[in-house]
Write a structure and sequence with these properties.
Blueprint lengths: L1 H11 L4 H22 L1 H30 L14 E3 L5 E3 L3 E5 L23 E5 L55 E5 L14 E6 L4 H6 L14 E4 L12
Parallel strand pairs: 3-4
Antiparallel strand pairs: 1-2, 3-5, 5-6, 6-7
Helix pairs in contact: 2-3
């Protein structure tokens, strides 16, 4: 009887720590489930946006390693993408029909000619796009041997490639003619400086852009406006955030 009285007195004193932890855990689980049930689409969009930000950081790091580790760096294995293309022999020639490369696995077209950003050599303009057609070659768009959507050969590095594949956008779809809102990654580069009016412009610069889609990252915490770049409609990454166009259909 005395033991039962003590138990009742202990109960009247409040909940035990274990009981409180259990209640808090249950409330947390129910809260997460409720948020997901109320707006599952927004939750998925936020998750994809987080992946995009992580992907661009990964690419930036990998290309930075290449530029530092290689004695003959090149941001354009094809010699037709960068605004000014440096050949393997180190000869710089203006590329007046430079291209924007997309992570999309297929042909991409652009309506009009986007104007290059402030860091670009002025004699070179974006005259088209690089739309890699990889039909029947599964995974080729992500290759790091210089044939992927980012035409950089990371496998040529003495210490080995820092990443096994170049990431693509989680949605990765485009319109028949590219639109600025399409959920696909974009890449542009500049190998060496330009000539004439372009002399003195930055050498070996690149930019990778992504479009974010969640309210959390485009309104509540607008990361596209806080990335330090010149385009508030895209999340920008790279060692130059003033290379890709500021606006337009690209």
């Amino acid at each position: 009887m005395n033991s039962l009285t003590k138990m009742n007195e202990k109960r009247e004193g409040g909940f035990t720590l274990l009981e409180l932890l259990i209640v808090i855990s249950i409330i947390a689980i129910l809260s997460i489930a409720l948020v997901f049930m109320l707006n599952p689409a927004e939750t998925l969009k936020k998750g994809r946006d987080a992946q995009r930000i992580s992907d661009l950081k990964t690419v930036k790091t990998a290309l930075g390693i290449m530029l530092t580790a290689s004695s003959t760096p090149s941001l354009d294995n094809f010699g037709a993408i960068c605004l000014t293309s440096t050949t393997p022999a180190g000869v710089t020639t203006p590329n007046t029909s430079a291209k924007i490369s997309y992570s999309y696995d297929g042909t991409v077209t652009v309506a009009g000619t986007p104007t290059a950003g402030a860091d670009a050599a002025p004699e070179a303009a974006f005259g088209g796009v690089a739309g890699w057609s990889r039909v029947g070659a599964s995974g080729a768009v992500s290759k790091v041997d210089g044939t992927g959507w980012i035409p950089v050969n990371l496998k040529a590095l003495t210490g080995g490639t820092p990443i096994s594949s170049f990431p693509v956008d989680p949605v990765n779809t485009v319109s028949s003619s590219i639109a600025a809102t399409n959920l696909v990654y974009r890449y542009a580069c500049q190998n060496g400086t330009g000539t004439g009016a372009g002399a003195g412009k930055p050498a070996y610069i690149f930019e990778i852009d992504a479009v974010l889609e969640s309210n959390a990252y485009t309104s509540e915490d607008n990361k596209m406006a806080k990335d330090g770049g010149d385009n508030t409609g895209m999340y920008e990454s790279g060692n130059s955030l003033n290379l890709l166009p500021i606006s337009g259909a690209f």
